[in-house]
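Need fresh eyes. Consider my entry:
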Amino acid sequence: MSLEYSEKRTDIRYEFPSTLEFELIPEKTGEVFKGLTVNISSSGLCLYVYDSLGEGQEIAIKKCVLPFPCQRAVVRWIKKIDEDVYMSGVRFLP
């Protein structure tokens, strides 16, 4: 019997609607992207973005109101929700 993805999580997710800004790494062109967080845990978060990110893409979280310092993360998955809206799961990097 396979477990649902949510059952495989090691960290509890909490609803956390907030905006954040991020840069793509290693590009660091200065271009800032915006997203809206859905939920958060100590290991990552889920957010809506308006630009398609690739799995494995690293981002530097720049402007946020996370309950801990902004940091780097890696995109673990992405799902197209609408014409120009994507849901993405990111895992924080140490």
